[in-house]
Amino acid sequence: MIKAVAIGYLSKVSTGNVNASHTEGNVVVAKKVTLPDGSSLPYISGQALRRMLRDRLADLGFSLSEPFAEVSGQEVTPPARPWEFIDEDLFGYLDASGMKRRTSPVRVSAAIGLYPYQGDRDLGTRSFERFNQSMESGGNMFETEVYANVFRGSILIELDRVGVFTSRELGEKSSEDQVRKLDHPERTKRMQALFEALGLLWGGGRTARMLADLSPKFLAVSFLSVKHPVFLEALTARYENGGIVLHLEPLKAALERFAPYRQMTVFGMDPGFLANEGDVRTALSAYAEVVSVQEAIRRAKDEVKALWSGPSA
């Protein structure tokens, strides 16, 4: 029985600061994590990525729960109607009163840059002359930490919980934790929409002047009989002679380790993204077919449809 979907992906940011940290003086600082050797890697938080996925689901025509939440001061009470709102189903919710709580079936890692931050900054200015002031009035200047990097991310989807809600999650009093399920067509629709949203991923801060495409350029998808983030630490690469070289051994080790649990696996790769594209295609073909990213997403959507082909849960 298939219980989960593990996804690993690589995205490229040519120049940007997708998910900033705090501001130091007039400098907008990028989120970074420090390595044992003292160098630092930029990262995009899981919260930011979940926000982007939500926004893409809205672009695809789904209604989100947020406009229907009750706000009182700093307290936000969600509608807690996951059968109605796809974001409450996929990403969970919390009623501050503690009466209703759903843990997200979609677990998202931070997207970690593969290369250390080099200290680059973008300089921005605002001239008061543009506001009918004299040139002598000056203006203000600000800086933004920027990077060019390849980010690796991982998603684990508890497939058996998508469209499935317990009485505790719904705040219903019951002597037993009863389960309410959506029908198969609706569950299929929601999972397929999530895959599509991943293929359309973009967002973050400063998109007006630092637009970044975060959609996967390399994608690994595996349907599993267990729940495990197979690709979380398996995607690494180095920068060599102006190109991105994917390290194959960690990925092959992960595939072999979870071979007994992998029911269906597919790889997607955009042409020209990896410098060792031929080696990657040859090595990974021993485990699963290597197709384009778009085709890999389509096959993942078809796999979901095949799993939930019946009319009811």
Automatic annotation (TrEMBL):
Q: Which GO terms describe its biological process?
A: defense response to virus
Q: Which Pfam families match?
A: DevR (PF01905)
Q: Which InterPro entries match?
A: Cas7/Cst2/DevR_sub_I-B/Tneap, CRISPR-assoc_Cas7/Cst2/DevR
Keyword vocabulary terms for this entry: Antiviral defense
Taxonomy, superkingdom: Bacteria
Q: Does the keyword Glycoprotein apply?
A: no
Enumerate the NCBIfam families for this protein.
Answer: cas_Cst2_DevR, cas_MJ0381
What the protein does comes down to: CRISPR (clustered regularly interspaced short palindromic repeat) is an adaptive immune system that provides protection against mobile genetic elements (viruses, transposable elements and conjugative plasmids). CRISPR clusters contain spacers, sequences complementary to antecedent mobile elements, and target invading nucleic acids. CRISPR clusters are transcribed and processed into CRISPR RNA (crRNA).
Q: Could you identify this protein by its name?
A: CRISPR-associated negative autoregulator
Taxonomic lineage is: Bacteria, Bacillati, Bacillota, Bacilli, Bacillales
